[in-house]
Specification:
Shape: rod-shaped
Largest sheet: 5 strands, mixed
Radius of gyration: 69 Å
Structural class: alpha/beta
Distance between the termini: 129 Å
Helix content: 25-40%
GO molecular function: electron transfer activity; metal ion binding
Keywords: Copper, Electron transport, Glycoprotein, Metal-binding, Signal, Transport
Number of helices: 5
Oligomer: single chain
InterPro entries: Cupredoxin, Phytocyanin-like, Phytocyanin_dom
Strand content: 5-15%
Strand order of the largest sheet: 2-8-7-4-5
Number of strands: 8
Protein name: Phytocyanin domain-containing protein
Organism: Lithocarpus litseifolius
């Protein structure tokens, strides 16, 4: 529908332009006319006729205008008349491009110079506007999440390829026994070591008796305190 309107507008515009640019040519003018005294061929060669222009013939009652084919034009014979005009003023529109031929039908006037050949040229039509093509609507591109980088099994910069990382193991009982000579099966205690062990055993044996002695003193003090408080209460 929009294309049809555009073509109609173009056609109307072209018609209006042609009407505005159309020219009216008075044959033999402005100083002459359609008669035997005007050099009509010289006048015609100085004009340029376009489609849409008009030819105006002005003549006396003794003359007329006859459109003929080229053969009759060359022989000045009106045997095959295309169109005849009379009346003193004739306007002929040039509606199509090409050559046209006109003579006066009165005997002897064509041979006296009352003949006209014109070549109508086509007008240059304005260029047809190309239809407007709208660019395609761009669709939003979905965002693709970037995958997380995978853990690489490549060796660290400080580790030589092919070399395994040393594993730290806890010390074995054999290592602790080797560090402590007393735990070794082949260890023989000396006299000083035996005296040291005896003193250690004695101090550890005295510890329970001293604890019992302190506990008995504590209970005795509590008992005496309770008795003292009962005596004081009876005294009051």
């Amino acid at each position: 529908m929009a294309m049809l309107r555009a073509l109609m507008s173009l056609a109307i515009s072209s018609m209006l332009i042609n009407l505005a640019m159309a020219a009216n040519y008075t044959v033999g003018g402005p100083n002459g006319g359609w008669d035997t005294s005007t050099n009509i061929q010289t006048w015609a060669s100085s004009q340029s006729f376009l489609v849409g222009d008009n030819l105006i013939f002005q003549y006396a009652p003794s003359h007329d205008v006859v459109e003929v084919p080229k053969a009759d034009y060359d022989s000045c014979q009106a045997r095959n008349r295309i169109q005849s005009y009379s009346g003193g003023t004739t306007t002929i529109p040039l509606s199509s491009p090409g050559k046209r031929y006109f003579i006066c039908g009165t005997i002897g006037h064509c041979s006296q110079g009352m003949k006209l050949q014109i070549n109508t040229l086509a007008t240059s039509a304005p260029p047809t506007p190309s239809p407007t093509i709208q660019p395609p609507t761009s669709e939003a591109t979905p965002l693709v999440p970037t995958p997380a980088p995978e853990k690489s099994d490549a060796p660290s910069p400080t580790q030589t390829p092919g070399e395994s990382t040393p594993t730290v193991l806890p010390p074995s009982p054999s290592d602790s026994s080797s560090e402590d000579p007393s735990l070794s099966p082949s260890f023989t205690p000396t006299e000083s070591d035996q005296s040291h062990q005896t003193s250690s055993t004695g101090s550890s044996a005295e510890t329970p008796s001293s604890s019992a002695h302190k506990q008995g003193s504590f209970l005795f003090n509590i008992t005496m305190g309770v008795i003292f408080i009962m005596i004081m209460l009876q005294a009051y």
